[in-house]
């Protein structure tokens, strides 16, 4: 068998459309998981035992259930009780909730790593706890958590390929359709491998650049 990429030419617009759909879903899911993770991390580290326990249950639950099971529950299970959500929205919600569980762990670690002396100084200066959390705790926690958050986000991008199982023609779903139409799965999936590798590599580079920018004062001091 000869390796022939020319067979892709007629299908490039369709594949590009799938890639754009993947990008849209991932951007929304990254934002959603960051928001959810931040709230859950705040609850886990809060002084309220009840809120902390609820947050821990959420994290343990969604970290220990396969993503595809969560996805099928939202897409195929909820309609049985009258809740209908389109495939794209379902994918974004499922990715956000699953990613939020892992993101919360990273942010929680960032919060716990903050020097208690900084918080004590802020309290002595008369700042309220909400102000301290918003203006001191979260900026420091997010800055120190950039690299591990990057790993979570890369994994979320890779996990988005599973959205093809709920009829969403994102990049992987589009590639499956093209492979079945052309009967040339080797070329199609070889290109898909390269596409995901390039995408995650670019995201890793961006995360590294963001980490260096946010921690530039520490680098200069060293």
How would you describe this protein?
By secondary structure, this protein is an all-alpha fold. It has a single domain, classed as MetI-like (MetI-like fold). Helix content is 77%, strand content 0%. The chain has helices spanning 12-44, 49-63, 67-77, 87-112, 116-124, 129-144, 146-159, 171-182, 185-214, 216-221. The mean pLDDT is 90.
Shape: flat
- Given as residue ranges, the uncertain stretches (5+ residues, pLDDT < 50) are none
| Beta-strand content estimate | under 5%
Q: What's the SSE pattern?
A: HHHHHHHHHH
Count of extended strands: 0
Radius of gyration: 21 Å
Number of separate helices:
10
Q: What summary fits the major beta sheet?
A: none
By CATH, the architecture is named Orthogonal Bundle
Secondary-structure map:
Elements: H1 12-44, H2 49-63, H3 67-77, H4 87-112, H5 116-124, H6 129-144, H7 146-159, H8 171-182, H9 185-214, H10 216-221
Helix pairs in contact: 1-2, 1-4, 1-8, 2-4, 3-4, 4-6, 4-7, 7-9, 8-9
Keywords summarizing the entry:
222 residues; MetI-like fold; 10 helices
Summed up, what is this model?
With 222 residues, the protein is an all-alpha fold. It has 10 helices and no strands. The chain has one domain: MetI-like fold (Orthogonal Bundle), CATH 1.10.3720.
């Amino acid at each position: 068998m000869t390796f022939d990429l020319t067979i892709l030419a007629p299908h490039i617009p369709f594949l590009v459309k799938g890639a754009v759909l993947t990008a849209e879903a991932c951007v929304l899911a990254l934002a959603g998981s960051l928001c959810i993770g931040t709230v859950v991390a705040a609850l886990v580290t809060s002084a309220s035992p009840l809120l902390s326990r609820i947050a821990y249950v959420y994290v343990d639950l969604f970290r220990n259930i396969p993503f595809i099971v969560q996805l099928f529950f939202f897409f195929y299970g909820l309609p049985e009780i009258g809740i209908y959500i389109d495939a794209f929205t379902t994918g974004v919600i499922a990715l956000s909730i699953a990613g939020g569980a892992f993101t919360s762990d990273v942010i929680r670690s960032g919060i716990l790593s903050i020097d208690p002396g900084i918080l004590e100084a802020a309290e002595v200066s008369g700042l309220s706890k909400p102000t301290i959390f918003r203006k001191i705790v979260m900026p420091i926690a997010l800055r120190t958590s950039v690299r591990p958050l990057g790993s979570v986000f890369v994994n979320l991008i890779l996990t988005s390929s599973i959205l093809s199982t709920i009829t969403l023609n994102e990049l992987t779903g589009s590639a499956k359709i093209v492979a079945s139409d052309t009967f040339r799965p080797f070329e199609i999936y070889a290109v898909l491998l390269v596409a995901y590798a390039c995408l995650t590599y670019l995201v890793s580079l961006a995360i590294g650049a963001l980490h260096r920018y946010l921690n530039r004062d520490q680098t200069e001091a060293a």
